[in-house]
Structures are given as C-alpha cells and as structure tokens.
Specification:
Layout lengths: L9 E6 L3 H16 L3 E7 L4 H7 L2 H6 L6 E3 L13 H7 L6 E4 L6 H10 L3 E5 L6 H14 L3 E4 L6 H11 L5 E12 L7 H4 L7 H17 L3 E12 L5 E12 L4 E10 L8 E9 L4 E7 L6 E8 L4 E5 L6 E4 L5 E4 L1 H20 L4 H18 L9 H14 L6 E4 L5 E4 L4
Parallel strand pairs: 1-2, 1-4, 2-3, 4-5, 5-6, 7-10
Antiparallel strand pairs: 7-11, 8-9, 8-17, 9-10, 11-12, 13-14, 15-16, 17-18
Amino acid sequence: MTHQNSAIKLDVTIVGGGMITYDLLLPSIYHLQRTGIVGTINICSLNSAPLRQLKNSKEIMQSFPGQDFIAYPSIDEPEGNNYPDLFREVIAQMKPRQVVVVAMPDQLHYSVIMEALKNNQHVLCVKPLVLKYEQSLEIEKIAHEKGLFVGIEYHKRFDRRALMAKNHYELNHYGEFVMGEAKMIEPYFYRFSNFQNWFTCDKTDPFVYVGCHYVDLVYFITGLKPVEVSVSGIKGKFPNGNEGYIWANGRVRYENNALLSVIDGLGYPDEGAGSNEQNLQMFFEGSNKSGMLKHNDQFRGVEHCYLDGIGCAGSHFNYVSPDFYQLVPWEGEGFKPVGYGFESVAAIINMAHAIETEVQKMADAESLKKRQEIIKKTDAKGIIATPANSYINELVVEAARLSILNDGDIATIVYDEHPHVELRVSK
C-alpha cells in the first residue's frame, strides 16, 4: 500500500537512537520521506552520542544524500548529559495523528507508547510490544477509542518464506504442526553495546528479546495458541559488570499439544561467516505421512569474501542475506532499502498514512468510525502485527519471565475471560 507524492505527509518521531534505528528504522523512514509518505523526522535519545553517530554515518549519508533529521538533544550537547524525559516534550510538540516509532529497550516500550497515544499519535513499536498482557489490552483499547493505529514490527511476518508457509498451512499442504525447533543467536559483540546497560536479569532475556520472533512466526503460520512455556537461562557478566541472561532455552507447548524448542543467546562468534544464527524447522503429521518445513534464515544462498573485513564484526567471509535488509542501487539518488525488514516498517507507516488519507475530508464522528473500521480490518487480516492479532506474544513473554525467574518451572497460559499466566502446580 503506497501513496507516492500524496498531499499528506506524516511527521515521524523515533524514540531511541540505538542499533535498530541505525540498521533499519532510519534508512527505511528516510526512503519513505523521499517517496512522499513522511515529512519531518525527529530522533530523540537519552543523550547525544547515538544521534551524533547517526548524523555522521557515511553509509547513511551516501545512501540518502541531502536528507537529515532533527536531533533531541542537539548533537552539540556533551555526551554525559542525559535527558530521560525529553521524548515527552518532543511528542507533545507534534501535530496530532502523526507517527511515533518506539525503539527503546523492552521494559520502556509501555511508557513511550502511552505518551504517544495520550498525544493522539499513531505508533510503530519494535517487538515485543510490552512485557505484560494487561498492558497490551490497555493499549488496544485506547488506540481503538481514538482511532489510532498501533503496529508491532514483527518483520518475519513479511518474509516471503513465512507468507508461503502460512498459505500452505491454511491449505493443509503440510498437515498439523506437532514438533519444531528454532534458533536465534545474536552476535557476541552485542555484549559490548548499550545492551550491557539494560539487558539485565531483572529486565529481559534472550528468549523474550529475540525468541519472540519465532514464537510469533509459528503462531502466524499455524494460528495455534501457546498454552505452556518453560524457559531456562544461563547467566553471564557484561563488560561493565552487570549480570544478564546471556543464553536461554525455551520450550513452548501449543493448544494441540505440539512443542516448539527455542534456543537464543548473545554469542554468535564475531569471526563467524554469518551475522547471526537463526533458523526454524517444523514437522507436521498428516494421514499416514508427515510434512516438514525448514527455513535457514542465517544465510540465503549468497556468499561473499571481501578484501578487507567489513560490517560490525569486520569479518572477511560472509553469508549475506539479501532478503531481510540491504541498501542497493536504484533509479533515484543514493541507495534504497530492500527486504522484508524494510517492507515491515513501510507497511506500518503506510497503514497510518492510508488511514489519514482516507479520512482527511470527513467530519470527526465519521472519521473516527472509518478509522476504527480500517484498524479492525487490519487486525483481522493478520499480516501486520497489532495488539489485537499478536496478543499471544505478550502472554508468552509474561510466562517466559515468570518461568526463567523460577529456574525454568513451567508457566501456564490460561485463556479464560481474563487471560493470564501462572506457574503450573506440580502434580
């Protein structure tokens, strides 16, 4: 859904200037700016350090010549000056019904989202949405009442492999899901990043942070609800001395008794050929036969060997994925982002843009009704993750945290009038 050269342009405020903003969000939003969807871009961060890095990035400047963003705080501010509540001022200054992009550590999503909704802003949030199911319900309710769109950036939903698998499962080409295994091991160098300041045992863990991608993906493909979660973690020390779960092993049981094992961590070797290790394998039962799918997501059949090491880890030989996100030449100036990572970001912002385009000439009451109608259709379509169609992720995250903090005890997800999680009583 694109509306190039539309009279409507949505201003975007990104809250958080870290890795995901550098690697995916800002380049994607810059491209939407030059295609006429996005107007002014603000980026708000705790301090000036990441904003200066974004401003001075040769890759970003070469890819998007002449484009810029407004930095909060100014890049001239000393790096030691922190502004934890500056985002509130920046959001309050926005015109209503623009877009706030939430790119903060997991435990800070809720406060930023609520500030955006309070100021009548559409929201794009990196996954997971929040860490509590009740919070996701609250967000869904407020957004619906105000006719504001909230999209969660579960980009694997836009991977063509996932869309093919969803289609085949719905057509019963595989059979019924019974057993699966997923991995997502992120690079070792993450331990030296800002992760060491917030990725602590009391806040999050690898299963919650990246394992949620595959939990969402299995639900996206099959529609099966998780009912039990058990997560065990292995602790380690970050370079600054903070303790966090560096590795996690989870097991998810589904309503049909199927099992998914999920292995996650911050430990893929910096010298390794891939940027990480990530894959999904699922087995299915049919009538006197079985089905299978296997997605090797860490490499997509492309191998490069460079004269000098490039990328974050500086490796020479690389399994290069052309499918998630790359900057490539195109018919315009600079380079453009391609891949399902970009498509996911674009779909969420385009949805907010489509809503504003649709209702621009309507009276308030008619406008609200149309907004709610479009949001409900998007919820039902189930491609873009929304609070209404991805709420199982919040229940799984809540269950995972309950489990890992209780040494891997099984946490049960109860789907009653008020869905909740609880530790399973030993028999």
